[in-house]
Amino acid sequence: MKTAVYPGSFDPITNGHLDIIKRASKVFDEVIVGVLINPEKKGLFNVEERVELINSVIKYIPNVKVESFSGLLINFMRQKDAKVIIKGLRAVSDFEYEFQMSLMNSKLDPNIETVFMMASSGNSFLSSSSVKQVAMFGGCIKGLVPDNIIPDIISKIKSL
Ligand code: PNS
After folding, report:
1. pLDDT tens per residue, range 96-138
2. 103 lines ligand 1 (CB under 6 A)
3. What spacing in Å lies between the alpha carbon of 80 and ligand 1's midpoint?
4. 8 CA from centroid of ligand 1 (Å)
5. Beta carbons within 8 Å of 72's beta carbon, 6+ residues apart
6. Residue ranges of the binding site
7. Does the keyword Magnesium apply (predicted)?
8. Disulfide: which of 48, 68, 84, 124 matches 4 by Cβ 3.0-4.6 Å?
9. What total of structural domains would you count in the chain?
């Protein structure tokens, strides 16, 4: 069985992430969305909330699941017996950082491959940070994130 891990912060999941997840689910037998537990970075949502939001949007895709992880991604990959990391690329500006990470990960474990998927053109401007910024200043985030999580984002921002 070919298992791939799609790692990230997902604070929160956007339609760009969801597009990559759906496309990856057609290429691999199983896709695990890996949410990084990063104690150094306080997000809008805590990791449990991010996992819950992702679960609410992927529950209709049978071969996709979500889990959190801490530490090195390659250790999580080994635990899950996964050999492929999925990354989304939106623009050339993503490339350098992602290129370095993929080289580091293959240095740490040469059995791990990183597979890059290009963001669909309609999502190439989308990021969790820009979604949060738009929502913070009262802008409309419809079409940027899955519809069902919009109320969660708005109420979280109101509670700050
Ligand atoms: O959504 P993000 O914040 O761009 O995701 C970054 C992520 C989680 C993919 C990356 O920070 C990561 O893999 N962190 C785990 C630590 C690790 O394995 N680092 C080794 C490569 S330098």
Report:
1. 999 999 999 999 999 999 999 999 999 999 999 999 999 999 9
2. no
3. 17
4. 6
5. 108
6. 9-10, 17, 41, 73, 87-90, 98, 123-129
7. yes
8. 84
9. 1
